[in-house]
Amino acid sequence: MRKIPLILAQLAQLAKQVQLIQPVQLTQPTQLTQPPHLTQPARLVPRPDLQDGIQEDNLRLDRLSSPRFAPDGSNNAIYLRRQYHMPDCNGASTTLHWIRLNNSLESTPVQLTRPIWGIHDQQFFWVDKATILFLSNRAQSGLTQLFQLNLPDNITALTDYIEPIQITDFPLSIDNLLVNRQASRLAFSCQVYAKLSIHDTAAQQTVKKASDSLVYEFDKLFIRHWDEYMIGLRHHPFVVSIARDTKGTFQFTSTPEDVLFGIDSDSPTRPFGDGKSEWSFSASGNSFAFTRQHDETSAVAWSTNLDIYTVNLTTSNIQPVCITCENLAADTDPKYSPTDENVLVYRSQSVPGYESDQFKLKLFNGSNVRTLLDNWDRSIQAITWSNNGQSLFLELGENADHVIYKLRNVQSPDAEASIVLASGSSHDINPHPKDEETFLYTGQTLTEPINVWLHRLSMVDQPITKHNKNLLDKMQRSDAEKFMFAGAKNEKVWGWHLPPANGTGQKAPLAFLIHGGPQNSWYNTWGFGWSFQVFAAQGYAVIAINFHGSDSYGQNFTDSITGQYGTLPYEDLQLGLTAALEQYSYIDAKRAVALGASYGGFMINWIAGHPEMSQRFRALVNHDGLFDMRGMAYSTDELWFTEHDAGGFTPYDNPEAFEKFNPVNHVANWTQPMLVIQGGRDYRVPDTQSIGAFTALQRRGIPSRLLYMPNENHWTLNPLNSIVWYEKVLDWMHQWTK
């Protein structure tokens, strides 16, 4: 039930009308080709008449990320653009794009790398005006390797794509590129066996693949984590020296050194860690900091402890030194100052075993640690230094928005933060090399998908990308608004309301959405699953409550759900539904459907067993929901979730804590039709939870259906499966609300 990135979004009726948007500046048209090392397996083709392709339109939107200014301070930027093969969703391509940021912000982007279905450029580092290092699976082997792109003096004059130079040719894919400021060292990760090199790991893998035997043996946890079996491979960071050859191409000048060699642990951490967040080079490039988990024993399954280690790269024998081991909670995301070799900031929690504890901001000066903004009650999600080393940009959730604060004069005892971006969802800050008040970022809302934006002190923020404009101009979208009501304990609780796209002139059915986490929020962000806009496009009003336990209203509000799974949030949902029906009179209270995933799925099962709430809904939709809390406690991967949220107990020390809010104990009260959805590779909420719920429904003779997706994890990631998901969910809703 890890905090699920909220995926909300749009609609429209024109997947067959608008073609894949191409970079218009090229005289040669973009031709997305299929490289010889890629083959496409046979796939299920979803029903083409699903409401005129609403979710297809949603999925075909370009995904933009990683905006970066030119390192020389010129007014140019590069970003990544991912395009999807539509209408059949049979592939995607990610490429590098360059744009000049003139005053009118009307520049046409230049696509630098050739788009090929199945090829993804990623994690680039702009070394100097003319050189980019990046990772890509463009290698003939199909493995992800390191490439170099040499930029011409006049990029706007390009008439064809730039062919990159391949630098590495490892027998395994590499990931998580990080280059120091001097471009004298870089770090990358590779999945290796703890005591084997990259080449020896590849050889061992070849032997295993040739064997007819498939047997897993475990002596400790994890057995499974998120969506994979833990059978030996570890993400290890490798550090290597680099320099240009006589042709200007970067080459390795030392043997890559495995910083964690011999240690059965991951860095970046699984399942969602990345090198950009969890690694850092010091100002001189001579020190390297990284985050790792303590995977050596089974305690990794019930401990949230992460620690930060540093290594001196100038010594012949690298020895990681832990700088946070006194804290038994999580310490992560080290960020060295760009100007001071000894200063490092990071995020830190104080409650062991509680993943949703508040992340505080810590500053380490080489010998001492102090807490910055100690009086804050918000949890910091990401940290970015200004290039002069005087300020920090802080990303955090606040009142269902992902906002940006700026902390000036970082090392001053009186340093204070002021808000810079207050609405929408803003991420991936990239400060200008010479102007501390100017930065790039990615921004989105419930009504606008992601774009790259430019922030200047004296100007209104403007998007510098318009790749999705043609499609969006033809879409009918619903406005989103927040509403407030008195929830449990008579405290203020907030929710979202979206009217149907066809207006409020007649009574409309209701999609009542319940978020997962549970320490999460329905954020002001655009996405591609659980899309508010898709439901609104089908004529549904959308109500989504950020109940007690949600994470963007202060830490006390987040903590309030501990030991209260079935009380405070349940009361908020009851009161929120009543408030919405009173405030938005066009909603037909007799045609409501409740939908939820993960903890939201738990709440669907909980509601099903409590007639005073279940009878308010014509039907229910439960995706990867918790059904039996005791069984969940013994079969989920990360035990700290169930143990902390039950009040800090194990199921054998205090069985009652797990039975108190156990949906399985109330199956006798179930009456309402339910659609159950489950991913076969979901090891957070194992499939027996949904199978158990469906079995209970069938045994009681309640109209029900099980949608099982064998290759999906806790989320529905495959675009084709996403279309099928919406087809089945909307069909179920229409069946019971028509």
From TrEMBL:
In this chain, composition skew of type Low complexity spans 31-41
Which residues lie within the region annotated Disordered?
A: 31-50
What are the recorded GO MF terms, alphabetically?
A: serine-type endopeptidase activity
Q: Which Pfam families match?
A: Peptidase_S9 (PF00326)
Gene3D superfamilies named in the record: alpha/beta hydrolase (3.40.50.1820), TolB, C-terminal domain (2.120.10.30)
Q: Which domain of life is it from?
A: Eukaryota
The answer to whether keyword Protease applies is: yes
Q: To which protein family does this belong?
A: Belongs to the peptidase S9C family.
Protein name in UniProt: Peptidase S9 prolyl oligopeptidase catalytic domain-containing protein
Its lineage opens with: Eukaryota, Metazoa, Spiralia, Gnathifera, Rotifera
